[in-house]
Design a protein that fits this description.
By secondary structure, the protein is mainly α. It is built from 13 helices and four strands. Strands 2-1-3-4 form a four-stranded parallel β-sheet, with helices on both faces.
């Protein structure tokens, strides 16, 4: 462990991570896989996931850092595999960790921690949620040797359908707003894109799901005891067993979900003839679908 890894780990555990875990807990997994449900479950148990949470319970501070990590290697959340290029270079990885340590350990992290939380959070388990953690975890793990990650998995066809729905909704919103704001484009450029990703078909989004599943398998194989995975459908249908597993993994008493779980979201593809046909003709042959019993 280089000096920056050691200092970052000591800072994180010393400021606001409980001794039972001795490192941050990260929430990863594929988008639209119940990560928000998991984050709410942990927060109800007292886990601190950030003072700067956006609508999806993700810390804006760590979203920016994860985006930066992916951008440095020429990637993004919908094409994250290129981060391996960064990991393959020891010199570049050291520079990256140095930068991240200074961001996480400096005043910039007050956005995440909050101005008055440093002393109040001593002894509390902390971390952050971001599906990008699935690919950036090796970097964070190098900085925080005791870090753990939870990776929910959801049926690939349901994920693909949810991503399609979200992308089409975002596109429709952008088209609606165009009449209101396009006249300003000649004066000021637009930040961000018009849609979440360039994928508008079930197949393209299913292939994206497979990319994340590849990395989830790799993370499980590499870090073993520091990784906990579960199926989203199991949490919906048998929350007691999944919550017990998470509790044992973190050494933390976690109550059952306070919110009513929507049973219809479990394997919802079966009620849609188009999605069911895609599953039978294509998705069912995926090795990752077979690996997870889908």
């Amino acid at each position: 462990i280089n000096i920056f890894s050691k200092r970052a780990s000591e800072w994180f555990s010393g400021v606001y991570v409980m001794p039972a875990c001795n490192g941050p807990v990260l929430i990863g997994g594929m988008h639209r896989s119940g990560t928000s449900l998991l984050s709410r479950l942990l927060q109800q148990s007292g886990v601190f996931l950030g003072q700067d949470l956006e609508d999806n319970d993700e810390s804006m501070f760590y979203i920016v850092l994860n985006d930066w990590l992916l951008n440095c290697s020429g990637g993004c959340w919908w094409d994250p595999r290129s981060v391996q290029r960064l990991l393959d270079s020891d010199s570049l990885k050291e520079l990256t960790e140095d930068y991240l340590f200074k961001r996480v350990g400096g005043l910039s992290s007050l956005r995440y921690r909050g101005v008055f939380r440093s002393s109040a959070c001593v002894g509390l388990l902390s971390g952050w949620k971001d599906p990008r953690n699935t690919f950036t975890f090796p970097v964070w793990k190098s900085m925080f040797p005791h870090a753990k990650i939870i990776l929910p998995v959801r049926h690939g066809v349901d994920v693909a359908a949810s991503l399609c729905k979200r992308n089409h909704k975002t596109l429709a919103s952008s088209q609606k707003r165009r009449k209101l704001i396009s006249k300003f484009y000649s004066y000021k450029g637009k930040s961000g894109s018009f849609v979440e990703s360039p994928f508008f078909t079930i197949h393209s989004n299913f292939e994206l799901w497979e990319r994340y599943m590849y990395m989830i398998s790799a993370i499980k194989k590499t870090y073993q005891d520091d990784v906990f995975t579960y199926k989203y459908e199991d949490l919906i249908e048998n929350p007691e067993a999944v919550v017990k597993g998470i509790s044992e993994f973190l050494g933390l008493a976690i109550p059952l979900p306070l919110e009513k779980l929507n049973q219809a979201r479990s394997n919802s593809y079966v009620s849609d003839p188009e999605l069911l046909a895609y599953y039978n003709k294509h998705a069912s042959f995926s090795s990752y679908m077979k690996e997870w019993g889908y």
